[in-house]
Design a protein that fits this description.
The complex is a heterodimer. By secondary structure, chain A is mostly beta strands. Chain A is about 0% helix and about 50% strand. Chain A is built from no helices and 11 strands. Classes of the chains: A mainly beta, B mainly beta.
Chain lengths: ~110, ~110
Amino acid sequence: NAGVMQNPRHLVRRRGQEARLRCSPMKGHSHVYWYRQLPEEGLKFMVYLQKENIIDESGMPKERFSAEFPKEGPSILRIQQVVRGDSAAYFCASSGQTGGDEQYFGPGTRLTVT
Amino acid sequence: EDQVTQSPEALRLQEGESSSLNCSYTVSGLRGLFWYRQDPGKGPEFLFTLYSAGEEKEKERLKATLTKKESFLHITAPKPEDSATYLCAVMGGGSNYKLTFGKGTLLTVNP
């Protein structure tokens, strides 16, 4: 059973570039969540998606960040014009048919902005 | 707004020395309280879900309990491989299924 897959595992971007983070949920899961973990801080919710729908994006910064979960393919978290403060670990989680199920996390993408 | 506070921030134990980690929470209508384990450089690994006060769950040397205001993760006779950061999270009734995490307790078990 493949778990939640994320790629790349490590990503280095210069200030002003774009970062694209990918997440494939566990087989049979239709709910995807993105969280960010800043150094010395806890995991913070960013966005909750189902196929082709953004359900809750209350944790997303208003500018430069966007997310999608298309009908086919992985969920994408996109950060435009990255700044040093975007350096963090970004985790994707997925859950089953019911939104209140346990969320299973991927290994994360560690973004470093130079 | 849902809030989670974990204590202590760090805990050092000798192998075999049992102890407990605390998770205090405030939430509007608890849907579930979740415990995860996180090793350095990895994603959180799901351990338990607790849904109502009085509920208990066990897995190997770990036992999680829940009251209306807090949860405890009891570790019995820990081993060095239990060393990790333990995260507590809540899902509130008005949260639209998002998890609110505490900052975690870093547990180190010395041989």
